[in-house]
Amino acid sequence: MNVAYLYSLIAVVVLGLIAYAGVEAAGLDVLFGVVIPYLALIVFLIGFANKVLDWTKSAVPFKIPTTFGQQKSLDWIKHNRFDSPYTTGQVVIRMLLEILLLRSLFKNTRVGFGKGQRIAYKWVVWLWLFAILFHYSFFVVVLRHLRFFAEPVPFFVSFLEKIDGMFQILLPNLFLSGVLLLGGALLLLLRRVLLPKLVYISKPADYFPLFLIIGIAVTGLMMRYLDKVDVVRVKELAMGLATLQPGIPEGGISGLFYVHLFFVSILVAYIPFSKIMHMGGVFLSPTRNLANNTRAKRHVNPWNYPVKTHTYEEYEEDFRDKMKEAGIPVEKE
Amino acid sequence: MNDKNKIITGLVIFFLVVLFPFWFNLIFGAADASTAPEPELTEKAEKAETCVAETEHMRTEHMQILDQWRDTVVRDGQRIYVAENGKEYDPSLSNTCMDCHSNKEKFCDRCHNYASVNPYCWDCHTYPEETE
Amino acid sequence: MADTPKPDQLYKNIDHTMPDEAWEEIPPDLSQGRFPYPTKPKNLEYLDMPTPTKEEWSPADEEWPIPDNWQEIIHEGFKDRLEKYRSLKIFMDVCVRCGACADKCHFFIGTGDPKNMPVLRAELLRSVYRKDFTTAGKILGKINGGRPLTKQVLKEWFSYFYQCTECRRCSVYCPYGIDTAEITMMGRELLSLLGLNINWILEPVANCFRTGNHLGIQPHALKEMIEFFCDDIEEITGVKIDPTFNRKGAEILFITPSGDYFADPGTYTMMGYLLLFEHLGLDYTLSTYASEGGNFGLFTSSEAMKRLNAKMFAEAKRLGVKWILGGECGHMWRVIHQYMDTMNGPPEFGETPKSPITGTVFDHAAGTKMVHITEFTADLLRHNKLKLDPSRNDNKVVTYHDSCNPSRAMGLFEEPRYILKNVCNHFYEMPENTIREQTFCCGSGSGLNTEEIMELRLLGGLPRANAVKFVHEKFGVNMLSCICAIDRAAFPPLMDYWVPGVDVTGIHELVGNALVMEGESERTMDLRFEPLKEETEVDADE
């Protein structure tokens, strides 16, 4: 049995308890409210830069795009510009479509075996849908949080809040993105717990970030709708961090908030060492970010080195008599 | 092909985005933004000493009380609110809350703006300055 | 194939239930019939490649003949490749195990073996990568999915990197474009550092190095073979063709995979090329030195690939041709399209390819100076330069298999279809999810078309065969066309097993059938000496 998810769940619960106890019982507000968030950010920045620079150091010896559509060849054959890009501009569009719309994932199919030896492939949209939900709601949630980290609050944040809260239900006003984030993460988790193939391939490193993000979403929603925290004090703390004048606001903030903040800190610090680096890596994937024009434009391999070949002269040396006999022209008679 | 420059440019842009709060506040921010602006109490409010509930409670739950008031008044016709301490109030934003906290700009807005909260109270209600 | 179960049984045995044990705990199946034979020492020695032993050995043996410091060799080789290939580093780091690739691999669909899911095939390397090259892996070890490099891991690599045909289908569905072909190539390179590779690949490499082609055909024999085809052509069409070899000053050098000289049905495709060139009066020559389009070096290491590929440009330069025309072959075109100019270019001969018949300039091949025969022929057809009688292919109901490499590493989709629609009257596509960029491998690519693993090949080829079966039953398709020499070698047994009644052809065999040659006698037979449609109908009526 795969118990990877149990480990991960336990790890996340323990982390939450540490933060809660740390603040509520041990009074470590400064540690969890100031020191750890700063540390997390520093680890993130250094770790992220390190990883990307490490990727950069590796060569791209060959141009190996995976082509999904018709190459550019004869004028009268319609060239599929974004599935088989020929110019840098077309590559950029292919990348944007891939990154913003997860186009490859949209192609997903599922294999099924029928009676009478019939194998069928069905288009399945779920993974794509869950992924889109998850990523976009996460993105909106992060952006919305700028209201805590910027004073005055930038116009695009207020604008986003208006759209995100357009249903005007619940009080405080419900932000759709928060619920969708939790929903998306739960759906992705369900796949990993219920689909046998997914269970089989999943590692603790797959469950851990999901549980962590679910933890972040749950504590976030709780603070807003159930066990409310004083947002003004939260903003004071956040602004302290953002203006490098950190401090714990007068009156303090509840332990729940510190659990939330600790989860976020862990996630942020964990990113450079985890699969979440796909956010940077996708930009550098050689099967996606290169043009399909190698026959027209030479790609240079920085480590291309001379190799031992079997030259024509050596070949003729081996076979000259036979070639002459067969009437095949030779260089040396 | 050397794509080092492109990648580093991308990385720098990404970090600029990530560090948005730091430079944004430095350029556009007020000097002391890590302290929330104090809501200003009117003389009447100061004299009253307590609101309809404890200050700590009011800080996080005032919207819930208002919401509850609206429901009891509009739907149930209930026009008396008994506070925890036994005191009775007229459950009305305009008549009770705004009686003490008569200056919206100096009381409500200070925190709401700071925390980017846009309650829709004022979609229906008018506030004192406007009635004058 | 004596002990291979019947198709019904084999199909029923396919089980996609996941095992109870974690995949790390399950040893690879290295019983007889589950692995291709290792390389004979003489071939490795001839190529100056690491040679583990001079004795015969088998992957089924408990102890493998590997040097004592094998872990160090692999570690250093891995490190070296991480620096040389960003693809490897990125693909090691970014996989989120979303599972999109899981059921996209023909080997997984056919075998149900979880380690044939692309994600786990990559995890075979990734687990070692984590342990040896990442901070988190060094600290967290197994929890982070890290694994020490043990002999069992090495055996696993051998087993599963020779159960991947580098077809790149999984990379179409991966949101990060993780390409298992790249993983497999790296895995095979690492294994080769210890001398662990397979004879079916390395023998052709050694042959090609020496004689210029995979099959080891020597120059005089090659000439004889081609002349033999010309005799057949004369018998069928009444037209005498006299191609030249190693002729300096020809305008075009024609290079095709040696499979087209050697075995049916590739030979019919070869006859098709010869007829086409004769029809056009093309100024071309064949080379006995660069007599191989394919490149089994691609399935060994980038170095081996480069060593073999160098002959093409060298020979074009020596003969002083203007450009090179390439025959129908899959992986050959991966090498030419994505690697050749980078490895062995820029070419020191000729000019941007230009069709001497239509005047069309092939700008998209300006650098490499090599044009695919279907690009060339499609252009001819567009300009009405061919005299055709497509009804001569009326005895064939044709479908088209998009060969993996021209599809996913080149984007060659429309040219062959355009030709097919011009040279035959009955053409049907296979189902949507099995063609074009989603095409299924023949199950024998990347050097796996060897007899000893026939059952695996039949299972790997099942998704493709099953799609053919669908159009065979629905439209009466009896001819599977393709533009790949490995396909032409691998499909006949695959079709015989899963879809009896379907033959295999290259596109240019059909072109050759349809071409109305100047001065030809009335045709009664196609290039296979089989009667044209009229007579088969009479036969059927009787």
In terms of topology, how is this protein built?
The complex is a heterotrimer of chains A (333), B (132) and C (542).
Chain A: H1 4-24, H2 29-57, H3 88-101, H4 103-106, E1 109-114, E2 118-123, H5 126-144, H6 146-149, H7 155-164, H8 176-194, H9 196-201, H10 204-226, H11 231-242, H12 255-270, H13 278-281, H14 312-325
Antiparallel strand pairs in A: 1-2
Helix pairs in contact in A: 1-10, 1-12, 2-12, 5-8, 8-10, 10-12
Chain B: H1 4-18, H2 20-28, H3 43-48, H4 55-76, E1 81-82, E2 88-89, H5 93-100, H6 108-114, H7 121-124, H8 128-131
Antiparallel strand pairs in B: 1-2
Chain C: H1 7-13, H2 41-46, H3 70-84, H4 86-94, H5 106-111, H6 118-133, H7 135-140, H8 151-161, H9 169-173, H10 180-193, H11 199-211, H12 219-237, E1 252-255, H13 259-262, H14 266-280, E2 284-286, H15 302-319, E3 323-326, H16 330-344, E4 370-372, H17 373-382, E5 398-400, H18 404-408, H19 414-423, E6 427-428, H20 454-460, H21 462-475, E7 479-482, H22 485-498, E8 503-506, H23 507-514, H24 533-541
Parallel strand pairs in C: 1-2, 1-3, 3-4, 5-6, 5-7, 7-8
Helix pairs in contact in C: 3-4, 3-10, 6-10, 8-10, 14-23, 15-16, 17-19, 19-23, 21-22
- The shape of chain B is elongated
| Range of strand content of chain A | under 5%
Specify the overall morphology of chain A: elongated
This entry's quaternary arrangement is heterotrimer
Major β-sheet of chain B, in short? 2 strands, antiparallel
Tell me the series of helices and strands of chain A, N- to C-terminal: HHHHEEHHHHHHHHHH
Number of strands of chain B: 2
Indicate the mean pLDDT of chain A: 95
Output the CATH class name of the largest domain in chain A.
Mainly Alpha
Low-confidence stretches of chain A: none
Order of helices and strands of chain B: HHHHEEHHHH
Rg calc of chain A: 28 Å
Number of helices of chain A: 14
Helix-residue proportion of chain B: 55-70%
CATH architecture of the largest domain in chain A: Up-down Bundle
Q: Kindly report the name of the CATH homologous superfamily of the largest domain in chain A.
A: Transmembrane di-heme cytochromes, Chain C
Q: How much of the polypeptide of chain B forms β-strand, as a percent range?
A: under 5%
Largest interface: pair, residues per side: A-C, 102 and 123 residues
Roughly how many Å apart are the termini of chain A?
74 Å
Main pleated sheet of chain A: 2 strands, antiparallel
